[in-house]
Design a protein that fits this description.
Length: 435
């Protein structure tokens, strides 16, 4: 992360943080601090806010990224708890009624998602007022990425999600949440088309995220999750698969998976080489994605350890993988009104045969192509298998398990209970899902 941007963020966090929850409030004004109006009406201030969105989403054990990957991994048997003293992780591994409205990881995840959405809305409301429309375009697009991610993440975990931020807000169905994320992305793409993002904005935010490709990739992802298959296919075809988009880390801003789990070997680790898949779908012995995502310690338990995108303090974490986009194409073809088995198999084989050297991130199965005559259900089973391997520890598997009709016996939870913090403050909070 750029130190100048971090300094801007610190000023903003100290001066303009607004509590989402309501209650007794006292205002203590410090004349030496920037006012919220000053922050939200300058390019420098708004840049600090969008960098703040990324920090909340990506840094530390309380980050959205750590909680998304870990909650999802424990709920789907990708991961297991090494030390039972990690209470929240152990509750998620136990699943069922052990996960309730007091669950601290879910509460943190819910709160941070709403905080990111709130701050993103401030940017989206104020950036259009800037004189430099190309810089404003960058701000709008960057804020839209994190707002869409948070709405999409919440829609993966809860049956209904808030329709807004504020008092007594209403909830919408999770599928409508995915559609809302797509609407946000479309609005950002329209702004960029009218006013291309300036180079000065790109140089003012942390390196790593390719904004336009990320918007198309997230549109493809959430269109797929919403069942909008032609739209998902169109968006996936617009993603340039030769360009990386990552959350970057360094010696000061550590990869949260490495910082919390890999480096300590005391929180969560890889279950085993099946990556949590049932035996009929387990990876082939020769699948080169297994040694990419896991490493074996022959002398100290647990035997299987986290590798891949959690293997070092400065390892970048992909916003999306090329393999995800290819598999979105495959699934979209196979779920069309009349399944396109030919193109579905072609795209599936593009992942099955992809070598580590042929992938931007080194994720490659390098297996023989699937050949023969297949039905759509057979090919969809294979798409699920290869999504589970290709996108291991991406935080997407629970949504995949529901979409592909996997039995509840393979999950620790199907959907999550609402945090009591929300239930106590919003009478519109829906009932908790039974499992």
């Amino acid at each position: 992360m750029k130190h100048s941007i971090i300094k801007i963020l610190v000023v903003i966090v100290l001066s303009s943080t607004v509590m989402i929850q309501t209650g007794c409030k006292k205002d203590f004004n410090d004349p030496n601090r920037s006012t919220q109006d000053q922050v939200l009406n300058s390019p420098k201030g708004l840049t600090g806010v969008v960098v703040g969105l990324q920090r909340v989403y990506t840094l530390g054990r309380g980050s959205n990224l750590y909680n998304l990957v870990t909650i999802n991994g424990l709920a789907t048997n990708e991961l297991f708890v090494v030390n039972a003293g990690n209470t929240a992780e152990l509750q998620m591994q136990t699943g069922g009624t052990a996960v309730d409205g007091n669950h601290t990881m879910l509460t943190t995840f819910w709160t941070n998602c709403n905080k990111v959405i709130y701050d993103a809305d401030l940017v989206l409301a104020n950036a259009p007022n800037l004189a430099d429309k190309n810089y404003a375009s960058g701000l709008i697009a960057y804020a839209s990425i994190f707002k869409a991610l948070c709405i999409g993440d919440m829609s993966q975990f809860w049956p209904k999600v808030p329709d807004a931020i504020g008092l007594n807000v209403n909830f919408i169905d999770r599928i409508d949440g995915f559609k809302k994320a797509v609407t946000i992305i479309d609005a950002a793409l329209a702004v960029i088309a009218a006013d291309p993002i300036s180079a000065s904005f790109i140089s003012s935010v942390p390196a790593g995220i390719d904004i336009v490709n990320t918007l198309y990739a997230l549109k493809a992802r959430y269109s797929l999750f919403a069942g909008l298959y032609p739209q998902a296919l169109t968006a996936a075809n617009l993603v340039n698969l030769s360009v990386k988009s990552t959350f970057n880390y360094d010696a000061l801003s550590l990869n949260p998976i490495f910082e919390t789990a890999t480096s300590t070997n005391n929180v969560v680790q890889v279950l085993d080489s099946t990556l949590g898949l049932p035996l009929p779908l387990k990876p082939a012995f020769a699948d080169k994605r297994i040694p990419f995502y896991t490493v074996i310690n022959p002398t100290i338990l647990p035997r299987f350890r986290i590798n891949g995108f959690g293997n070092a303090a400065a390892t970048a974490f992909p916003v999306y993988l090329p393999g995800e986009i290819i598999l979105i194409k495959a699934e979209s073809y196979l779920r069309a009104g009349v399944p396109d088995l030919v193109n579905g198999l072609i795209q599936l084989n593009n992942v099955i045969t992809k070598t580590p050297a042929g992938d931007l991130f080194g994720v490659g199965a390098d297996l023989p192509a699937a050949v023969g005559v297949f039905t759509a259900p057979q090919l969809l089973d294979s798409v699920y298998k290869h999504r589970s391997i290709e996108l291991y520890m991406s935080g997407l598997k629970l949504e995949d398990m529901r979409r592909f009709g996997r039995p509840n016996s393979e999950k620790k939870r199907n959907l999550m209970p609402y945090p009591l913090r929300e239930r106590d403050n919003n009478p519109n909070t829906p009932p908790d899902p039974p499992f």
